[in-house]
């Protein structure tokens, strides 16, 4: 019985371990997918900040053309340019895919051209404000080029984020299904094996109970087949030994009773002979 219980405990431990491994594997996959979603969404946010910097550079250029002191906007342009450069580096470090990194590298080139155009425009505004005011279209054209590049980047990053989010949802659903199936299969296996083991224990016990009941009714002929092991096997052996001993005692008592009966019959016969002899003597 101890071995059977050990088997059940071992199987339960193995099933628990298997379910745990499946759950941990699913959790690791979900964590990886979740990290991709987070990175894509962070990249979208950075791209929005870049769009803001692009607009501010445009505003700096237009203010320089309209103002009395265009040179004062050089510092603003330098600050916005430094911020844009830092954001582009951050964006490239954030996106998880090589394709996205290549797109960011292209975007850097577009921004570099845009920044060169803005700086050149402000230099023109400092040297010849009238000429700068007549060439505002150049700033707008450069800004449009950046906007188009950013729009493409927005679309790409958002598509990646949506795709990663859908993959995460699908993975979570699949993981839940896998874990539930693993638990159900494990419980089914455990239940089936427990049933078989329980049956192997209950059947010999039921046979032993039936044998004891028949023994109590006076049937000394039944013997149990000693097939079980452990405590159940010991019970079968003990019953057979007890039944054999009772059978021997009953046989001995029966034999003694037969001997007593035979002696009594012989004594009765002798008594009858003596009585007959005495009667014959009396008649003579």
From TrEMBL:
CDD domains, sorted: HAMP (cd06225)
Sequence intervals crossing the membrane: 179-197
Keyword Transcription regulation: no
Pfam families: 4HB_MCP_1, HAMP
One GO location term (cellular component): membrane
Keywords for this protein: Membrane, Transmembrane, Transmembrane helix
Keyword Transmembrane on entry: yes
GO BP: any one term: signal transduction
Domain named HAMP: residues: 199-251
Gene3D superfamilies in the cross-refs: 6.10.340.10
Protein name (database record): Methyl-accepting chemotaxis protein
